[in-house]
Amino acid sequence: MKTDWDDAIAFVLAQEGGYVNDPNDPGGETNFGISKKAFPTLDIKNLTVEHAKTLYRHHYWDACQCDKLPRAIAIGLFDSAVNQGVGTAIKILQRALGGLTVDGVIGPKTIAAANAATPRKQAVTLAQRLVAYHELMSNRPQLNVFALNWFHRVVSLAKLVL
In 3D, which of 81, 152, 71 has the Cα closest to residue 119? Predict the structure, then answer.
């Protein structure tokens, strides 16, 4: 039986692809989306997909407590954490849910708000990512090269979870 984790990791791996060393990417060298910036001692070029999955599970899925969240929010938060960083992803979620302290920490109040979120509010959590990308590109115009990919990523995610 497929789990939310199975769908989430399949989505991320499809979005991230294999080895890339794009000078425009602030993460630097990446493989399966795992970046040298996040894991400076890791041999990125020779990373296996199984090792990447282990890193994703521990440092992103479990760190965001995705198993305690509804499917749409769990998968969306995981993908955002991979692409934007765990703390930033949690803050985006907290802003979208509203009525929470935006501190980048998944605690009981954030978990409760996520589980109480209507389908409309779940969609807002995805839309809030587009706002965050816009703000990022406004502050760092050199990242505009990623705009279309980021938009496509969020739309593809919405198709998967909503």
Answer: 71
